[in-house]
Amino acid sequence: MVAATLTFYDEADYKAYLSFLKDAAARYQVAIHAFVLMTNHVHLLVTPSDAQGVGRMMQAQGRKYVQYFNYTYGRSGTLWEGRYKSTVEDADNYLLTVYRYIELNPVRANMVSHAAEYPWSSYRGNALGKAIQLLTPHALYWQLGKTDNERQSAYRALFSGQIPERDLAAIRQATNKAWVLGDERFKAQIAARTGRRPAPLGRGGDRKSANFRGNQ
Questions:
Q1: Which one-letter DSSP state was computed for residue 201?
Q2: Domain limits at 104?
Q3: Each residue's pLDDT tens digit, 163-204
Q4: Potential cystine with 187: which of 29, 33, 102, 198 (Cβ 3.0-4.6 Å)?
Q5: DSSP 8-class letter at 202
Q6: 56 is a domain residue
Q7: 96-151, pLDDT tens digit by residue?
Q8: Predicted confidence (pLDDT) at residue 154 exceeds the cutoff of 70
């Protein structure tokens, strides 16, 4: 999942951002599975074709949107509060939860009572079949049913309950701190593949362990 901070004032701003995002995603071969544009930030669920895809996409569409925004509102400078934030997630255990997390943002913010009421998210595409060219369904989304109607019905059913607080906290923490979102086995796989620590070191015992000392 990717999160970035920026600003939207008018309906045209949301449309411009989605247009720039669509072009950048196609250029750098990044599949967009879910999105939400809030008034001051965005969330994206994506699958890149290579390790550089997400960074290049975010840089390209961010540059275009800032140029558009500054020209439209007669200003200068950046809209970003630092670099975008992202996490690698365990699709088997978290993918559909992250779909829900993203599309329920406007509900949690008390902007609407149901995700279907918010026009600037992917919910209407994933749950109601609205044509949104930006979207590419994930393989696990396709497994929700054999037909479009079956998949959309199963997807809507996922929104009948609330996301557990522990999952909300795990998603937020992993995204904000660029940790891996998944179980220990998945984290170990990512660490072996990338050579990067997927989560913070534990306190006390971990720092005093032989393994920790041996890695210094």
A1: P
A2: 2-160
A3: 999 989 888 888 887 777 766 675 666 566 665 555 554 444
A4: 198
A5: P
A6: yes
A7: 999 999 999 999 999 999 999 999 999 999 999 999 999 999 999 999 999 999 99
A8: yes
Give the long-range contacts of residues 152-160, CB within 8 A, separation 24 or more.
152/126, 152/127, 152/128, 155/99, 155/126, 155/127, 156/127, 156/128, 158/96, 158/99, 158/100, 159/100, 159/103, 159/104, 159/115, 159/127
Q: What is the domain-level CATH number for residue 94?
A: 3.30.70.1290
The per-residue b/e assignment along 169-205, b for 16 or more CB within 10 angstroms, e otherwise, is ebbeebbeeebbbbeeebbeebeeeeeeebbeeeeee
Q: What's the one-letter identity of residue 102? A: I
Please indicate, yes or no, if residue 104 is contained in any of the structural domains: yes
Give 188 or 54, the one with higher predicted confidence.
54
**Residue 30 maps to a domain:** yes
- Please indicate, yes or no, if residue 172 is contained in any of the structural domains: no
